[in-house]
Amino acid sequence: MIGIKIDLRSDTVTKPTAGMLEAMMTAKVGDDVFGEDETVHQLETKLAATFNMEAGLFCPSGTMTNQIAIKCFTQPMDEVICDQTAHVYRYEGGGIAYHSMASVRLLNGPRGIITPEMIEPEINDDNIHYPNSSLVVLENTVNKGGGACYHLAQIEPIHTLCNIKGLKLHLDGARIFNALVATGNSPKHYGQYFDGISVCLSKGLGAPVGSVLLGSKEMIRKAVKIRKAFGGGMRQAGFLAAAGIYALDHHVQRLSIDHDHAKSLSAALKQVNYVVSVMPVATNIVIFEVAAGFKAENIVHLLAEKGIACNTFGPATVRMVTHLDLSSEMIDRAIEIILHLHPSAHK
Ligand SMILES: *Cc1c(COP(=O)(O)O)cnc(C)c1O
Predict the structure, then answer these.
(1) Cβ < 6 Å from ligand 1: which residues?
(2) Rounded to whole angstroms, how far apart are CA atoms 331 and 6?
(3) What is the whole-number distance in angstroms between the Cα of residue 91 and the centre of ligand 1?
(4) Alpha helices of 230-323 — where are they, by DSSP H?
(5) Ligand 1 centroid from CA 330, angstroms
(6) CA quadruple 270, 272, 273, 276: dihedral, nearest 10
């Protein structure tokens, strides 16, 4: 089995399929900065309709869609409320401070899932000493929470609270389709709860590039201008949008296969002596803690020698992510490797 490579580092490593490439090559394109690319327009309209939102905006990355949304919903000196694990806070290069000049109030939800009871006491009163609380950001699924997801029933009361207190609500839905497939919730109900939604096409859906920001017509008009200022206006972007449309048509329902694969990996990891615990698998992310005496870095290195690529997620934590470029045979092979690995403990 020399040369096998099972890449569990991220669901961003997928390559376009033959069908996707064909859709890209035959796309009708125009200059999207002039608003003339019909394929981009088709993608934006399709996704907005899916989530019952008024409008969409195609951007190069999920970081850009999140940061544009935060800039749309805040003024300098405002405060954003989110969980301490949030991608918008941890993994977007300090963008909230840099682009929006806002501060951040961090919550500590179990697996990154926050509740109205946690949010309410952190909303500042109107007082000259305090930053103005203007936005709550939820992440679904929660990356650092091991792919944990919100059900609509948990989102609704957060929306109600934000409404009463006059705060906007944004969803970092980088893996929203994983959450929808896992919970059975319909995207149609999402639009009524959120002021902004960011959806990644280049995670488990398999497109090479792109995220879409959804919101009201008024919000998206503002977002177009911010995207321009961020340098995210693209010309014949329809070639990329076509990949997104193809992904939405062909790669959503199959996400349940990735979830099954993640559960199988988790079951194997629970059997080996070098793993002390595995976060319950909710979607396509498996996070495990190595046992005392073992180092995450060392386990990752030994797995790499056998052909499995994965990443540490802390000194004693490892993350594995399943995606559409992994067949059931590759997962079976990964399980064999996991079960037969015999790392030595360091005292
Ligand atoms: C990947 C990801 C994003 C966006 O990342 P980009 O690499 O900029 O597309 C945003 N939020 C979460 C939770 C993510 O996992």
Answers:
(1) 61-63, 66, 87, 139, 143, 172, 174, 200, 203, 211
(2) 8
(3) 8
(4) 238-250, 255-269, 296-305
(5) 25
(6) -20
Closest by alpha carbon to 75, among 133, 34, 127? 133
Q: Is the pTM of this model over 0.90?
A: yes
Residues with Cβ within 8 Å of residue 88, at least 6 apart in sequence:
66, 67, 70, 80, 82, 95, 96, 137, 139, 172
Q: Which of 9, 138, 143 to mutate to test ligand 1, by most ligand atoms within 8 A of the CB atom?
A: 143
Q: What pLDDT, in 10s, does the model give residues 40-94?
A: 999 999 999 999 999 999 999 999 999 999 999 999 999 999 999 999 999 999 9
Instruction: Reply yes or no on domain 254-340 having CATH 3.40.50.2300.
Output: no
Q: How far apart are CA 276 and CA 292, in angstroms?
A: 8
Contact in structure between 238 and 37 (CB atoms under 8 Å)? yes
The answer to whether residue 1 scores a pLDDT higher than 50 is: no
Whose CA is closest to atom 5 on ligand 1? 62
Tell me the average pLDDT across 109-121. 98
User: Which class is domain 18-250?
Assistant: alpha beta
Residues 6+ apart with CB under 8 A from 199: 47, 51, 65, 173, 174, 176, 177, 211, 212, 214
Cβ neighbours of 118 (radius 10 Å) = 16
Q: What is the mean pLDDT of residues 113-138?
A: 98
> How confident is residue 277, by pLDDT bands cut at 50, 70 and 90?
very high
C-beta separation of 113 from 154 below 8 A: yes
Domain ranges of the chain: 18-250, 254-340
Q: How far is the CA of 343 from the centre of ligand 1 (A)?
A: 33
Please write the tens of the pLDDT for every residue from 199-243: 999 999 999 999 999 999 999 999 999 999 999 999 999 999 999
Cα-to-centroid distance, 198 and ligand 1 (Å):
9
